[in-house]
């Protein structure tokens, strides 16, 4: 079933588990996330990023409603999250497409403007029963530039949570978006201090680049929502590439998309098993 993201994060937080949140770009991705979660017998979150909405020509409803429908028929609980929203208009459109949560990302703004904009976004979200995630200490890599050196300050994190009323906080602790190698090293001491300072669940972005043992340690240390995107693209595109390299005759996209979907589902399943 489709369930509120808040429920999944709260349960994972209470049990000291991680909840995997996986980027969805197309319908096949949503099907792969649900298939992987069912294979693992664990809940998961499907998340659609502002960039993915841009890929769909700015239309949110078709991919969101399709993903929500796939989640509704899942045998395990699945949440629907709108990720990395910088556009206020897109934020407002989240209210009628089945989302349980949104990440409002004003982390590129100067601190005072990040606080004010995030406070307004959280108030708006809470009026509509939506759970709101925000980011402090910009996690690099979305623009192709890796910035694994960025760090979130624990005292600032505590003040930011108190000033904005957000439900979860994405923190910079050594990961970086869009890595294709799993070589990131996390600052576990900082994770511990952030867990103590922030009163809300912590979110790890750029988790593709983080090796399994580092992810396990991060979850044990207090990271709760674990966002994974690029690893799925590696699996999906790798399967398409392998299929087409071995077959120059097939024209039916269902042939190579089904192998891509299957490989992506396996990637989701193994990531979920690591997170517990
Ligand atoms: O919000 C999405 C995640 O941070 C994905 O990052 O593509 O590096 O795994 P990743
Ligand atoms: Zn991210």
Automatic annotation (TrEMBL):
Organism: Actinacidiphila glaucinigra
PANTHER family xrefs: D-TAGATOSE-1,6-BISPHOSPHATE ALDOLASE, D-TAGATOSE-1,6-BISPHOSPHATE ALDOLASE SUBUNIT GATY-RELATED
GO biological process, alphabetically ordered: carbohydrate metabolic process
Pfam families in alphabetical order: F_bP_aldolase
Binding-site positions, Zn(2+) 2: 105, 135
InterPro entries assigned to the protein according to its UniProt record, in alphabetical order: Aldolase_TIM, Class_II_FBP_aldolase, FBA_II
Binding site for Zn(2+) 1: 84, 177, 205
GO molecular function: aldehyde-lyase activity; zinc ion binding
Active-site residues annotated for this sequence: 83
Keywords of this entry: Metal-binding, Zinc
Co-factor remark: Binds 2 Zn(2+) ions per subunit. One is catalytic and the other provides a structural contribution.
Names of the cofactor(s): Zn(2+)
Protein name: Fructose-bisphosphate aldolase, class II
């Amino acid at each position: 079933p489709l369930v509120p993201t808040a429920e999944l994060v709260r349960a994972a937080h209470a049990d000291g588990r991680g909840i995997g949140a996986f980027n969805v770009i197309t319908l096949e991705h949503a099907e792969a996330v649900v298939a992987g979660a069912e294979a693992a017998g664990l809940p998961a979150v499907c998340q659609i990023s502002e960039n993915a909405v841009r890929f769909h020509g700015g239309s949110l409803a078709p991919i969101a409603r399709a993903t929500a429908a796939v989640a509704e028929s899942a045998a395990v609980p699945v949440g629907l999250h709108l990720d990395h929203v910088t556009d206020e208009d897109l934020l407002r459109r989240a209210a009628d497409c089945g989302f349980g949560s949104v990440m409002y990302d004003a982390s590129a703004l100067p601190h005072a403007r990040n606080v004010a904009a995030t406070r307004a976004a959280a108030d708006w979200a809470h009026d509509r029963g939506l759970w709101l995630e925000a980011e402090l200490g910009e996690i690099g890599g979305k623009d192709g530039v890796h910035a694994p050196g960025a760090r979130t300050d624990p005292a600032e994190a505590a003040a930011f949570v108190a000033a904005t009323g957000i439900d979860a906080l994405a923190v910079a602790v050594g990961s970086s978006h869009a890595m294709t190698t799993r070589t990131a090293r996390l600052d576990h001491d900082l994770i511990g201090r952030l867990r103590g300072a922030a009163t809300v669940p912590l979110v790890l972005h750029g988790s593709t680049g983080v090796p399994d043992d580092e992810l396990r340690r991060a979850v044990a240390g207090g990271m709760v929502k674990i966002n994974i995107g690029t690893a799925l693209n590696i699996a999906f595109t790798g399967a398409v590439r392998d299929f087409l390299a071995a077959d120059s005759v097939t024209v039916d996209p269902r042939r190579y998309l089904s192998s891509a979907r299957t490989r992506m589902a396996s990637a989701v399943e193994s990531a979920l098993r690591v997170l517990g």
